[in-house]
Every structure is written in structure tokens, then in C-alpha cells.
């Protein structure tokens, strides 16, 4: 309901104010305040939320909508019904008699601007309307800054299960918001086993599964309701679909979600499972960068080669960043960095050291690794990664470093040279 501000939505075609109330006392108070603000008192209607849903299903939504929930048996469900008929950009103020902090939080999370406890007083109502007017008259930061800097869409792809791609994606999204001061959306496309919401100690909601089941519903209002806010700069769209639910899709829902997020946020981080990458290559159409998360192992080296070759053939515009994650700080990895880089025929851009204690602490706190481990080597590496991605995208003069012309089979042949080197080191 409180969709991102755009000039097209700020026009004068919509009514400035409409209210639906359940009792005469509330109606009289709202009429008096409406007259003070220059609004028509005739826009205060009797009937509460149910009447609001019926009326708005056949008429345009106002800029500010006041709804009375006093007669609602399930306020949260009824607000969601209102959201189905309410146009993006409408600011909703609700009032009710239930004094429950959890209900207040749930209602605000569903998209309303404020929940006022009845009986109302005049000053309380004036303040709520003044805040709503301030929101309408002030363009969001995204709109002001989007002209100056390009949208940053980054795909994070793990080459092997357990490489830590989701950990990197979550930290990257948090850093884009916290360090780069950009509004950021994290889109976790592992529909059944995604950990994006879990890593931020959030409930994922049904937004992503609803989008897959009914792509035609996806618009600015849907995005606003489906996203779960982690903080002022970071929102997430994730899922924990039942294992009995196959969630078959042609990928159109994912692409539409990307388009809506692109118009509402300055950055989008897509946690992209490698299986989804291969099935739906069009998801990289708007991405400028891909962070390939790998470990320094033989199998990971093979898959880095395969995925980077696939990207070169199917998404040549995407700038690739290789991030070696979970690199042990004591002892040697399965494959040394030098031999790994020789095999994949390019440098590893960022090394993220593994610290079991820091990782466990981040999980306990429900915070991204970059936030929970501030000042650590792992956090510094993640900051370096976020800075590198932003710089790559903003620097239009940077060209991709092409491969040296060696065939894929030739690259795979290099693995033979890795095994003897390990054996000699062990000897």
C-alpha cells in the first residue's frame, strides 16, 4: 500500500483523502479534521473496513485512506483483503480497539502506515495525517539518487553445495545498504531450502511462493506486501515452500520480480542456485555482475570453469567476480590458491577466511556475517567484495578479462597437475 513514490502516482487525479468508520463519534472527529486540512468531509463514510474493500474494488484509491477495524474479527486478514484492491502509493491509517503490540507490528509489516487505538483524540489523528502528508510530498531517496547512479543487480552463485553462497549473498546485500547507503533487495531463489530470511532472523512469508503460483499478480503493490524488512535499507523476498509442493515455474515470475525490484530499489542481490541458473538463463539478462562463490577444492575448480564458460556463452555482458570462501586460516586448503588460479586461468578476486567461532556467533545472533563479525578478516574480505562489485558496475570503461583461448577440455586436463603437487607436499 505504501508503494515507492513515483511522479506518476503523485498527481491530482486521485482523491486526497477517504475514510470508512464504524461509529458516529469517530466520523464526526474525522470530518472536523478533514475540514481543517481542506479535504471534503463527505469523504468520511460509514461502514468500516468491509465497506472500504467493496468501494475500492470499483473505484480509485485515495492518497490517504483511513479505515476502522473495530468490527473486524480478523484485522490482519482483512487488511490483506484491502491490499488486494488498494492501488500502489496509497497510505493507509487504521484504527481499532484491540490493544496488542503483536497486532500493531503485524499490521505495520503488512503495509499500513499507522494503527491508532480507539477512542481517538484529535491531536492523535492530526499527527497521523500530517505524517502521511509528509510522506506523500517527499520523494523517496531511491528516486532522487537513481538518476545519478545505475541500479546494481548482482547474482551470487555457489559452484558447490556448502560453498557459502547464501552467506555471501546476505552479507553483500547488507553491506550495499549499510556501507554504500543504497536501498537493497535480497531475492533468494532457493524456494524450498533458502536461508536468506533465516540468516536475518526473519520469517520469509508467502510472497515468493505466491508469485510463482500466480505471476500475473506481481506489481508494485504485491512487492510491497511480499517483501520482509530487515532494516531501513534492506528488504528480503524468500521462501520455505513445503517439500510436498513442487513449485514448477517457467521462470517468468522470477524475471518479473527482478523487474519490480529494479524499479523500487537501488541494488538487487539475487541468491541464484546453480540449477536455477541453468534452467532460467534469462534471469541474468539485467544482471551486471555475478559473484561466483567457491572453495579451494578440486571439484570446485572444475565447476568454476564450467560456470564461467557458461556465463561467457549465455551472459557475456556480466562481469564475473571469483570469491573463494571458507578458506582455512590454519593448514593448507585441498588445492593451493596458486594451483587453483592456474587451473581456472584467472585470479581469485577475494579470499574470505573461515572462522568457525565467528560463523556460529552470526548464526546465533541472526545477523549477516559481515555485521556480526565487524573488524574480522572475514568481514573485511566481504567489505572488499562489495566495494569491488559496485566499482565494476559503475566503471563503464572496465572490460571483462577474456579467457586465454584454451578449450574447456584443456582446462579440465589441468587437474592432473594438481594431484601430484598435493602428493609431493604431503610427502
Description:
By secondary structure, this protein is α/β, with parallel strands linked by helices. The protein folds into 2 domains: 7-139, 3-Layer(aba) Sandwich (Rossmann fold); 145-422, 3-Layer(aba) Sandwich (Rossmann fold). Helix content is 44%, strand content 16%. The protein contains 19 helices and 13 strands. It has helices at residues 24-36, 48-56, 75-85, 101-110, 122-137, 141-145, 165-178, 196-199, 207-213, 220-226, 252-264, 274-279, 298-314, 337-344, 356-365, 369-372, 377-394, 408-413, 415-426, and strands spanning 17-21, 44-46, 64-68, 91-96, 114-117, 152-158, 184-188, 228-229, 234-237, 267-271, 289-294, 319-328, 350-354. The protein has an 8-stranded mixed β-sheet with strand order 8-9-7-10-6-11-12-13, sandwiched between helices. Strand 11 (289-294), helix 13 and strand 12 form a beta-alpha-beta unit. The longest helix has 18 residues, at 377-394. The radius of gyration is 25 Å and the shape is elongated. The termini are far apart.
Present the secondary structure layout.
Blueprint: E1 17-21, H1 24-36, E2 44-46, H2 48-56, E3 64-68, H3 75-85, E4 91-96, H4 101-110, E5 114-117, H5 122-137, H6 141-145, E6 152-158, H7 165-178, E7 184-188, H8 196-199, H9 207-213, H10 220-226, E8 228-229, E9 234-237, H11 252-264, E10 267-271, H12 274-279, E11 289-294, H13 298-314, E12 319-328, H14 337-344, E13 350-354, H15 356-365, H16 369-372, H17 377-394, H18 408-413, H19 415-426
Parallel strand pairs: 1-2, 1-3, 3-4, 4-5, 6-10, 6-11, 7-9, 7-10, 11-12, 12-13
Antiparallel strand pairs: 8-9
Helix pairs in contact: 2-3, 3-4, 7-17
